[in-house]
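Task: sequence in, structure out. Protein: F-box domain-containing protein.
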Amino acid sequence: MVNPSPSIDQSSSATTVTDLNIDSLVHCATYLNLRDVSSVAMSCKYLRRAAYSDSIWKRFSREQWPEQISSSFSQTSSMREAYLARHTALHKFKFSDPLVADFYTEPKPYNHLFLNTNEIIFSQSSLVHMMRIDSFLGGKDFLVTLSDHHARITCVRLFPLYETSLFRSETQRNENVLVTSSCDHSIRLWWKGNCQRCFRGHNGPVSTLSDKLLGDGSGKIFASGGVDATVRLWSLSSSGKRGQHALKATLYGHEKPVVLMSVAGHKTSLLVSISKNSKVRVWDTTASSAVRSSCCVGVTSVPGAPVGLKCHESLVYVAASSSVVAIDLRTMQKVFTTAFRQQELHSV
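Result:
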């Protein structure tokens, strides 16, 4: 009988994964998913060193956030820490992953800032800039500048396209038009990057616009207030580039420039306006009268210079100087006044 071959001790010659250098291990890890890499990191200190490599976590970051600007990850000591910090922040606040990007404009003050469905809208002096988000992400030309105004823009509003004469089909129902007022005495309606209507009627700069449309059903209108101390009502359904026949009424009663206005929450035909001398007037825009001042259905005043005005249900909140006054529009009685000591308010 042939004796079996003596056993060979291979323990001294066997090669293990830890015999590979770090670069080789990192390369192998490029074929692993996040869960597998995390498991590798828990096995031993040597493999953890490879699993924590910046190149591995940079790949995970690009896969998770392909549009993320890479420079924003450089503020932490490692790519892994940056990835985990961002993941934790998103989970904590429970919002969809935001885009982080820097966008530089001319060094001029911003007067207004709005977020539309796919656009960021802001004004500087007489210009309106529209930044299209999908074009920005796609690497295309994303900035449109509207330059038809000839003086500082005073107010910016977004109104539903279907309330205007520009509405053509149901596919446009979720779109908005942009309406701006200016010190050049005009109001302009914009859509698809172009001025579609120009409304003129104020005898001076137009200082403010209603925050919502007035009325129910079809034929809704918007309001404007001017330095000429008038409130004017405009139809969005009028046709013509110059907005002919758009002016529906001119309301008189204010003695000083109208600076702010808001539509009542409990009754959309009521408009609240306040002038520079802090006089508050409530207008019933459905009233038909030859004397337009008779459309005023309520008057009161607040102390201090007005800085903000906002309606909610049957109340209107007026911020003036360092206090906020709540007024019941049904009785025109002041419900409460909240004062802020040694602090001046800027908006409401």
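The mean pLDDT is 85.
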